[in-house]
Every structure is written in structure tokens, then in C-alpha cells.
Design goal:
The complex is a heterodimer of chains A (472) and B (295).
Chain A (H helix, E strand, L loop, with lengths): L22 H16 L1 H8 L4 H26 L7 H17 L5 H23 L4 H21 L1 H4 L20 H22 L2 H11 L1 H6 L4 H27 L9 H14 L6 H19 L4 H15 L19 H34 L4 H26 L4 H9 L2 H9 L4 H18 L2 H8 L2 H7 L5
Chain B lengths: L1 H31 L6 H19 L6 H22 L9 H23 L15 E4 L2 E4 H24 L1 H11 L1 H6 L4 H23 L9 H16 L4 H21 L4 H15 L14
Helix pairs in contact in B: 1-5, 1-8, 1-9, 1-10, 2-3, 2-4, 2-8, 2-9, 3-8, 5-6, 9-10, 9-11, 10-11
Classes of the chains: A mainly alpha (472), B mainly alpha (295).
Chain lengths: 472, 295
């Protein structure tokens, strides 16, 4: 017991590979992605799948661009905006109004006008917003986005009010019946946008933004004009969001005020958090997953979509603050605890948060099952109760064993998520239900794959037990 | 003159309804530092619980009075459960993550409402004796607003003031808005205090839901409609300041009622512009204390 816990040799920080070295390779990844994704509509049509998937993917790309632009603010600069949808609206209405009101207006110019007006609006709005921080910043961005929303909603003479702006002329080549051209157009525009954003975050400018996120005061001390850089980030995010807004307009050939409504702002927030705000591609993954789950659930069970979404959000905020893509990244490097204390804390947290995922997985399995077969709900409830009892006993025992720091149990836990996953597949839980289990798995890997915990399990058992004596 | 008075009274009526909701939001923010998105949901649950109580349990309009006593307590219990089950674990996190957590609760609670009560609009009748109107300056006003809504709002206002300024517990709560760590060091059970304050905030939200229910429709989605209005009120008045909430509610109500008179299309727009101006010029709100870091 008296062995000092510092016998543990653990790196103080997990090193994150620098991105600059991979910069050039990424350009080729973008080109490869473009070439591969370009032929997806043909593949879908050839396989005889529904055209719905083509439009779904196109929407994922637009949301992805929007989310990456938004994440330049949230993840890279550390400013959480609750009104990013304002620029969607500004972009959509700029292009829409230009094409609609001026006959023969060139389509390309109309599209370029969107990011320009988005940047201008962001310059004006950002000028006021960057003076505030945290909740106040969020509230002011919300206020501005509502101003944009209500202006579009009420100004019938100009924007068409709540009837929207309909029948916007769009070149014939973007609207083919299979949506393949529309898809390809959106793909090219969004990939170019995302690539530009990639270059921006990996430039010295982007590194400066990250420095501001980490510590605005210190960034100021080394001579960075913090407010000015925040304003630049705000403008860039606004411009690319507006581009996404213009793209949303093209498919429906109409713009509605809902484009700028605040729930869109929270939706993009959800995507970023789901995918991981501290990674560049996380928000795109988040956008893909959210749109896919949305399509999957709302097809059969629209009544529980928000319930599901809210549960996902709560689970992620508790168990995976880094999002799905963020699980390899270092956690809490600012902590001043020594290695042993961090292991102890992480294990305690793991045991506690584990139950949230357990409960969510059990609940949604039962819920989807009841929705699929409402007549046998009594059996389902009984079965779930039995599963709960067995699961609680089993998991309590396993968590206890894990805290003995025997290597075997760490391996058991890393394999464990396969069990509920198999169970869900056997029970025909919809795709989105499986996501909860996937989150659970990512959560477990996130914790048990951390450097400190890996090291702790590698120690002889008596050393490990000294680290966490009360963990038993 | 009478026109002016009519609009003034209308404005005050709007102000009282929104005050009941915003005061709980402001109180919770002041003490816990969490801007509670789910406050609108608690308000919605207040309305729906009253609906169940009047329609399914007692089958009589006069059971409104029972609801007025019971429903806010039920909502307070729900609030305490939410605090103990979710919010308790994230006080150390970034305040905006807390805001997002409460947004997750909004999403969950809004679907639970639809699963329990259905997606249709519901309504409850006014308590007997308050169905008619009263004439003031020759203008008819619903007697419900004059004799129930206004007194309830004023009593709550005075009650909160007395509670926070004249009782020991109230002083502890006010101390908690100033320095949370210090009152913990002084031996106050901060965990219990937080749960209590959150429950009190929920109680106010539930009360708002009960009072507002007989005046309009009860529907899923009323949570989102009200919460943005409540945000405006507390931001204008000052986040965490109860006197500010009163002022914010009055400005909100009067701007609404007079806005309809003068700029019928853009009254909502003006409210948001006012909110933006207040945030730019005086971020802590009209009566708020200086902005502390971390919020």
C-alpha cells in the first residue's frame, strides 16, 4: 500500500500527430474522394437502389460543408454559435433573389454571390458578436439569426414572407430526373469548399485560431490580436455556411425562412458534437450519421426521432465529449493530477458512465421492439426486465473484475460490445438503434484505450492495485 | 387614452405570463450557472399535467384550483429528478455543454409528451366564474386575465422577493449567486441547495404552465415557442437578476402589445433587435451585475 503510485511510467501527454506533415497527402485524398464519390449515382442506379439515396447523399454533403464551416468556429476557435443558420438563410436568399428577380442572371455568379454576402453579413454581425463570450456570445448570435429569420418571414414584398421564394430558375442541367447531375454538382462544390476549409485550418491562420481556443489570454500575450482573428474565423464560417445555404436552395428551387430558423443552428451543433468537434472531418461523419439515422427512423417511427436524438446527445455529452471521431485524441491534458490519480478518476468515471449506455441500449432495444410488434408488448417488457436484471448483475460483476486491473478483463471489455450488437441485429433493431451500441463501443474503447489505462493494465497486478486501492 | 390603457393592460398580461416562466429560468441561471433550455419543457408539462388532471382525473372545471396547487409541485419533483439524474454531473463542464445537455432533455421530453398525450392540440376550460369578461374603460377584458393571471403574477413576484430577501434560505440562495465555492466552504450542502433551486425553478415553470393553459391551446411544441421568449426576457433584464426579469418581462409585454398597434408586421423583429442591442451595449442586461467569467 505504501508504494508510491508514481512508479507508473506514463507519458504525461498523448501525442497527437501533427497535420502539417500530412498536408500534401491530403490533397490527393480529396482528389481520390472526388473521383470515387463522383460515380456513386451510377452505382446506385446500376444496383437498382432507390434514387432517394442519391439525394440523401447530396444533402449529407451540404450538411457536411455547413458543419465543417460551423466547426471552424466551435471546434477550432472555441466560439459556440447558436445562430449559424442565419448564413444558410442569407446564402439561400442571396442566390435565390438574384436568380429570381434579375432574369438571365448567370447561375455561377449567383452561386458565388452567396459566400460573398455571407461574408459581408458575418463581418457586420461578427463585429458585434466577438465582443462577447460563452453564453452571451451564443445568445447574441441567436438574436441575430432570429432577426434574419423574421426579416425573411415577414418581408412579403421582397422575400415572399412565409410563402417562401418559389420557382427560382436553375439551369436545366442540374435538374435531371435521376438527380445524378444535381448530386455531382453538389459534390464538386462541397468538396472544393471543404478542401479550402482544410487548407485554412492547416495554415498558420488556422493554428492561430486553435491557440486562441486553447487559451485566449495567452494567445493575446504572444501578440495575437485575438478579437481580430475571431472576427476572421466568424467571416470564413459565415461565407462557407452561406454557400451551403445556396446549395440547399438548388434542389427544391425554392427558399423558405425555415432555412434560417434556430433549430437548424442546433442541428448543425448536434452534427459537430456527434462526429467530434476537435477533428476536421468529425462534423462530416456527424452529418452523415445524423441524416442516415433521420432517414432510417423517420421512415418507420417518426414519433420517436427527437427522443432518440436527445438520448444520443446526452450520451455523447456524458461519455464521449470528443465525439465519435475524437476517441483517439488526448483527453483532459490540462489536468494537474498525477498519472495514478488520472487512472483512478478515469476508471471511476468509466464505471459510472457505463450504466448510461447500458440503460440506453436496453431501453431502445425494447422500444423499437414494441413499435415493431405492438401486440406483444407485455412479453417485450418482461423480456427487457429479465435482460435488465441479468445485465445489471453481469455488468456489476464485470466492472468489479475490471477494477482488479487484470489484463484479461480489459480484453473482455473491449470485446464485450459485440454482444449487444449481435443481440440488436438478432432482434432486427433498426440501423439507428444499432448506433446506440456503436456509441457504447466507442465509449469503451475511448476509455480503455487511453495511454494511462493501457499502462496501468500492463503493470504487475500489485502495482496496479496500489494505484486504485478503493476501486475494488 | 383608453386605447393606450387597453394596450398597456394587454402588455402587462403578456408580461405576467412570461414573467412566471422567465423568473425560474433566471433563478436557475443565477445560482447554477446553467441556461436551462428544458425550462420551456417543464412549462409544457405543467400545462399537460393540468389537462390530465382536469379532464381525466376530476372531470370538472373547478378542479383547476386543485391543479394550481398540485401540478407545480409535480413539475418541481420532475425538475429535481432531472437535476439529480443529469445536470448534477456536468456543473464542472463548459457552461455551453450544460446548455447542450438541457437541449438534449428538450428533445427527449418533447417526444415523451407526444407519446403520452398525442400530437393534437388540447385545451382546458377556465375555472367557473372566470369565463366572462369585465369592462374596463368600456373595453372588455377576459376576467381570467384580470382576476387570476395578474394577481398570480404579482403574488409570485412579491413572494419571490420576500423569500429571497427576508428568509435565511433565500439569503443562502442569493449568496450562492455571488460565490458558489464560498458558501460550500461555509458548510452549506451545495448539492442539496442546487437540487432545491432547480426544483423551485421548475415549480415556477410549472406554475406558468398551469396559469397559461386556460388562455390558449396546449400543444407539443409550446416548449420551443416559449423558451425563446423567456431567453429574450432574461437577456434583456439581466441573466440571473430577478428584478431584471420583472423589467424584461414588462418591456417584452409592452413592446408586443404596442408593437402590434404601430408596426403590426414587425413586432417580433423589434423584440429581437432590442435583445441584440442590449447584448451589444450592456451584455449583463439592464439590471444585471457585471458579467463574470465562465458564464
Amino acid at each position: 500500500m505504501n508504494t508510491p503510485p508514481t512508479t507508473l511510467t506514463v507519458p504525461r501527454q498523448v501525442t497527437v500527430p501533427t497535420r502539417t506533415a500530412r498536408g500534401d497527402r491530403t490533397t490527393w485524398i480529396f482528389v481520390a474522394a472526388l473521383v470515387l464519390l463522383f460515380w456513386v449515382p451510377e452505382a446506385i442506379l446500376y444496383m437498382g437502389w432507390a434514387r432517394f439515396w442519391i439525394t440523401l447523399l447530396a444533402e449529407v454533403f451540404i450538411w457536411g460543408l455547413f458543419a465543417v464551416a460551423f466547426n471552424l468556429l466551435m471546434g477550432y476557435t472555441g466560439m459556440i454559435s447558436f445562430g449559424q443558420a442565419a448564413y444558410l438563410g442569407i446564402g439561400g436568399y442571396t442566390t435565390g433573389l438574384l436568380l429570381k428577380k434579375i432574369s438571365g442572371f448567370p447561375f455561377a455568379l449567383g452561386l458565388i454571390a452567396a459566400p460573398v454576402s455571407g461574408a459581408l453579413a458575418a463581418l457586420i454581425i461578427g463585429y458585434f458578436c466577438i465582443r462577447l463570450t460563452h453564453t452571451y456570445f451564443a445568445m447574441l448570435t441567436l438574436a441575430f439569426s432570429m432577426i434574419v429569420y423574421y426579416t425573411a418571414f415577414k418581408w412579403y414584398d421582397f422575400t415572399g414572407g412565409d410563402n417562401g421564394l418559389i420557382g427560382i430558375p436553375v439551369p436545366a442541367w442540374v435538374q435531371d430526373p435521376t438527380f445524378a447531375n444535381y448530386y455531382k454538382f453538389v459534390l464538386v462544390v462541397t468538396l472544393v469548399g471543404v478542401y479550402l476549409l482544410w487548407r485554412i485550418v492547416n495554415s498558420p491562420f488556422g493554428k492561430t485560431l486553435t491557440a486562441i481556443r486553447e487559451n485566449p489570454d495567452r494567445a493575446g500575450f504572444v501578440g495575437i490580436n485575438v478579437k481580430r482573428y475571431q472576427l476572421y474565423a466568424f467571416i470564413v464560417a459565415g461565407a462557407f455556411s452561406a454557400l451551403a445555404g445556396a446549395l440547399f436552395m438548388i434542389n427544391e428551387r425554392s427558399v423558405y425562412p425555415e432555412l434560417a430558423f434556430w433549430t437548424r443552428s442546433t442541428q448543425v451543433l448536434l452534427m459537430s458534437i456527434l462526429g467530434g468537434v476537435y477533428t476536421f472531418f468529425g462534423p462530416i461523419v456527424g452529418a452523415f450519421m445524423l441524416q442516415l439515422m433521420d432517414a432510417d427512423i423517420t421512415k418507420d417511427y417518426p414519433q420517436i426521432w427527437q427522443l432518440f436524438l436527445g438520448s444520443m446527445l446526452v450520451l455523447i455529452l456524458y461519455g464521449l465529449p470528443g465525439g465519435i471521431m475524437g476517441f483517439i485524441q488526448a483527453r483532459d491534458t490540462a489536468s494537474t493530477d498525477d498519472a495514478a490519480t488520472r487512472v483512478r478518476k478515469a476508471m471511476g468515471e468509466f464505471s459510472r458512465k457505463f450504466w448510461y449506455f447500458f440503460a440506453a441500449a436496453l431501453f431502445f432495444t425494447a422500444f423499437f421492439h414494441i413499435l415493431q410488434a405492438p401486440d406483444t408488448w407485455k412479453t417485450t417488457v418482461l423480456l427487457t426486465a429479465a435482460q435488465a436484471v441479468v445485465g445489471v448483475v453481469l455488468c456489476t460483476w464485470m466492472l468489479r473484475q475490471l477494477n482488479t486491473f487484470t489484463q484479461l478483463w480489459r480484453v473482455v471489455f473491449l470485446v464485450f460490445p459485440l454482444l449487444p450488437l449481435a443481440l440488436h441485429i438478432a432482434l432486427h433493431t433498426p440501423l439507428s438503434g444499432l448506433m446506440i451500441v456503436v456509441l457504447w463501443a466507442v465509449f469503451i474503447y475511448n476509455y480503455l484505450w487511453q495511454a494511462e489505462i493501457r499502462e496501468a493494465f500492463g503493470q504487475p497486478q500489485h502495482v496496479a492495485l496500489d494505484i486504485a486501492p478503493e476501486a475494488q | 387614452m383608453s386605447d393606450f390603457f387597453v394596450q398597456f393592460l394587454n402588455g402587462v398580461t403578456i408580461a405576467m405570463t412570461i414573467y412566471l416562466i422567465a423568473s425560474g429560468l433566471s433563478l436557475v441561471f443565477g445560482v447554477l450557472g446553467v441556461l436551462n433550455f428544458a425550462h420551456g419543457s417543464l412549462y409544457m408539462y405543467g400545462s399537460f399535467l393540468l389537462f390530465t388532471l382536469m379532464r381525466s382525473v376530476f372531470h370538472s372545471p373547478s378542479s383547476f384550483w386543485i391543479g394550481l396547487l398540485v401540478v407545480p409541485l409535480l413539475v418541481a419533483i420532475l425538475g429535481a429528478a432531472l437535476e439529480m439524474g443529469f445536470l448534477r454531473f456536468v456543473y464542472k463542464a463548459d457552461p455551453l455543454y450544460q446548455l447542450l445537455l438541457t437541449y438534449g432533455l428538450v428533445l427527449i421530453m418533447s417526444d415523451v409528451v407526444k407519446l403520452i398525450w398525442g400530437a393534437e392540440n388540447q385545451s382546458v376550460s377556465r375555472p367557473p366564474g372566470f369565463n366572462g369578461s369585465v369592462a374596463i374603460f368600456g373595453q372588455l377584458f377576459p376576467s381570467y386575465s384580470i382576476f387570476i393571471l395578474l394577481p398570480c403574477g404579482i403574488v409570485t413576484m412579491i413572494g419571490l422577493y420576500v423569500f429571497l430577501n427576508r428568509t435565511r434560505l433565500g439569503r443562502i440562495i442569493r449568496a450562492a449567486t455571488q460565490d458558489r465555492e464560498m458558501i460550500g466552504a461555509l458548510g452549506i450542502n451545495v448539492r442539496l441547495l442546487y437540487t432545491g433551486v432547480f426544483a423551485l425553478g421548475a415549480w415556477l415553470g410549472g406554475l406558468g404552465g398551469v396559469i397559461a393553459a386556460p388562455m390558449g391551446a396546449i400543444y407539443p411544441g409550446m416548449d420551443l415557442d416559449i423558451i425563446i421568449d423567456a431567453f429574450i426576457v432574461v437577456v434583456i433584464g439581466g441573466l440571473g437578476s430577478l428584478a431584471g426579469t420583472v423589467l424584461g418581462a414588462l418591456i417584452f409585454g409592452l413592446l408586443r402589445s404596442f408593437g402590434i398597434l404601430f408596426v403590426p408586421q414587425f413586432e417580433t423583429l423589434f423584440i429581437f433587435i432590442l435583445m441584440a442591442i442590449v447584448l451589444v451595449v450592456r451584455p449583463q442586461g439592464l439590471l444585471g451585475k457585471h458579467v463574470t467569467s465562465g458564464h
